[in-house]
Design brief:
- Strands 1, 2, 3, 4, 5 and 6 form a six-stranded mixed beta sheet that branches.
- Helix 5 (117-124) crosses helix 7.
- This protein is an alpha/beta fold.
- The termini are far apart.
- Strand 4 and strand 5 form a beta hairpin.
- The chain contains eleven helices and six strands.
- The protein has helices at 17-36, 40-45, 64-68, 90-102, 117-124, 129-134, 136-144, 146-150, 155-175, 178-184, 212-217; strands at 52-56, 75-79, 107-113, 191-199, 204-207, 235-238.
- The chain has two domains: 14-47, no CATH class; 50-238, 3-Layer(aba) Sandwich (Beta-carbonic Anhydrase, Chain A).
- It binds zinc ion (ZN).
- Residues 57, 59, 82, 113, 116-118 line the site of zinc ion.
Length: 244
């Protein structure tokens, strides 16, 4: 397959076989998958049409296809520490543009989680290095909501509350992106936005209630046309053409 020769891993010390286990498991999985569906990979190779863009935290306890029982081809995923969608961040911006304009995903899910190290670091005021710089928006968010957060005595519950606040704030950043604005105004297929939190301690995903009224008032989402209001309190979006 590869034309170059050389070791398949570099580094020092013991433990290289930890990664070899992953390669072995991958080979077994691919064989099993082909036994179930001989065309599985041929079909995947033809292209992708994922309905979902998933913006989540890097945390290893949130294996997205496992917890949502989805198959390859269903989730288009962007992950970074603290599931941020920050204006000016080219990585998440490029993912959003490709997902919305080229793949025409029908759902954008920003998903935080409980016990998030990013929230903890922001609340503790970690501000050094690249990580500190990256977490600046979360620190600012914590400062904006200091009254509410300070009233929560348990540090882990405080982090979890900030995680939920952060999900809504990141959705607002997504809503401000022109490609999302245009889709919500009726250009292209329907689009819905969701804010979820994964509860690490129970394995359950929670769909957060979204501040739809405030977003409408602030012009972040267009008014829903009559007949399209389905009362979905934890998803924001309008069907194609509804705002025309
Ligand atoms: Zn996290």
């Amino acid at each position: 397959m590869s034309r170059s020769s050389g070791p398949t891993a570099v580094g020092r010390g013991e433990g290289v076989e930890e990664a070899e286990r992953l390669l072995q498991k991958n080979a077994e999985w691919a064989e099993r998958r082909l036994r179930d569906d001989p065309d599985a990979f041929r079909k995947l190779a033809q292209g992708q049409h994922p309905p979902f863009l998933f913006i989540g935290c890097c945390d290893s306890r949130k294996p997205l296809d496992t917890i949502t029982v989805t198959r390859p081809g269903e989730l288009f995923i962007h992950r970074n520490i603290a599931n941020l969608f920050t204006p000016g961040d080219v990585a998440s911006g490029a993912v959003l543009e490709y997902a919305v304009l080229s793949l025409e995903v029908r759902h954008i899910i920003v998903c935080g989680h409980t016990r998030c190290g990013g929230m903890g670091a922001a609340l503790r005021g970690v501000d050094g290095g690249v990580l500190g710089k990256w977490l600046t928006p979360v620190r600012q968010l914590a400062a904006q909501h200091a009254d509410e957060l300070d009233a929560i005595r348990s540090p882990s519950e405080r982090e979890d509350r900030l995680s939920a606040i952060n999900v809504v704030a990141q959705l607002e950043n997504v809503l401000r992106h022109p490609c999302v604005t245009r889709r919500l105004a009726g250009e292209g297929p329907p689009l819905h936005l969701h804010g979820w939190v994964f509860h690490v301690e129970t394995g359950r995903l929670e769909a957060l209630p979204l501040p739809e009224r405030r977003w409408l008032k602030e012009g972040l989402i267009p008014p829903v046309a009559e007949g399209d209001a389905d009362g979905a309190a934890n998803a924001a979006g309008v069907p194609n053409g509804a705002a025309s």
